[in-house]
Design goal:
The chain is α/β, with parallel strands linked by helices and 161 residues long. The chain has 6 helices and 6 strands, in the order ααβαβαββαβαβ.
Length: 161
């Protein structure tokens, strides 16, 4: 499991949260019932989702015990769970309307496997939306493209200012 310092991470909380706001604003569903935030960190992105979709059941997951502790402490009304997205996504429910991830998946190797497992968390018609801060070569993701029947796919890339 990764070790992260939540206090250090939140020193730039506004800057780190803005891409989550931008990404959440692009979710095309009016009232998703169930959302997962992969790589939720200290809960700032999960809070953005809660503000945008207050009626949804939202689960924040992260591989860092420190981040999960900070998230649960800052947002006791929300659900958080320790989960390594590189190895444990298969243990989660597979009926999410939205699989959301901001600034996380670039840290996880084997993107074809990761994206396949993220897609498998969706109910039919669900939305996968993520931000990835590094260049990704989608030409190697033939198998991923074949999984589109699991739901819609929206890619969103934010460039550094």
């Amino acid at each position: 499991m990764s070790s992260w310092d939540a206090a250090q991470y939140l020193k730039f909380g506004a800057q780190r949260t803005q891409p989550s706001r931008d990404l959440a604003a692009r979710i095309p569903l009016e009232q998703p019932r169930k959302i997962i935030d992969i790589g939720c960190g200290p809960g700032n992105s999960t809070e953005v989702l809660r503000q945008r979709f207050p009626q949804a059941d939202i689960l924040g997951v992260d591989s860092s015990p420190e981040m999960i502790r900070a998230a649960a402490q800052a947002h006791p009304e929300m659900r958080f769970q320790l989960c390594d997205a590189g190895t444990e996504l298969g243990t989660l429910d597979r009926d999410f309307d939205v699989v959301f991830s901001n600034a996380c998946i670039q840290w996880i190797p084997n993107h074809p496997k990761l994206l396949r497992e993220m897609m498998q968390l969706l109910r039919p018609g669900g939305i996968l939306i993520f931000e990835h801060s590094k260049k990704m070569d989608f030409s190697d993701l033939d198998e991923f493209w074949q999984l589109r029947s699991y739901g819609s796919v929206q890619f969103s890339f934010f460039k550094k200012p």
